[in-house]
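Technical note accompanying the year-one report. For the benefit of new consortium partners, we illustrate the data format agreed upon in the data management plan: each record pairs a sequence with a structure-token string. No post-processing was applied to the example shown here.
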Amino acid sequence: MKGLVLFILTVPLFANAIQPKDLTSADEHHKYLLLQNPANSKQLIRGVKSSQPIWLAVVPDIIDSLPQSQNHALMNALAASLIRSAPDTLHTLAEVDKVIAREGHSSQRDKFGSDIICVYVPDPDIYNKQSVKEYFSRAKAVLPQAGEAGRSCLEIMGELIAEMKRDNQKKPYKWGDKDYFKSYYPLNVPTETP
């Protein structure tokens, strides 16, 4: 009997969980309203961060509707997905780039293009130096396997890392103390990293 009561109480929670099709079929205003709900935006971010293709496919459709308060979270999720599943994420970034080419640049859209996500590294103000090194190491392992787009992305990221090294030699960073791979990145999903 307790099991039945628990089932009845939890079914509405799952029935109301946002699905990718809810976002792709909605108009811009409705997408915005859906993503204002913290549970919905958390579901989107978790799906992107864990490289679920069905959630990655939603990204080009929602970038103009995403509340600005969620921009940083989606950027971080795309960057995490990039080293988890480079081909799927690069495909998503290419689709975002097509939206930018078709609709034009905007401060909102441009945050999610390949030229921005490919220069992402864990924030040195938050994460420790080892986290940045490990992120780049994982990127070097998976991006070349994703073809020309992956190699191009890695080249851009490598330029940023070289610039960070030069800046750090001039004036050492005050590195954060968090470990990116223990505090932000972990998920119980397979990765492409060795």
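Partners are asked to follow this layout when depositing records. The longest helix spans residues 147-170.
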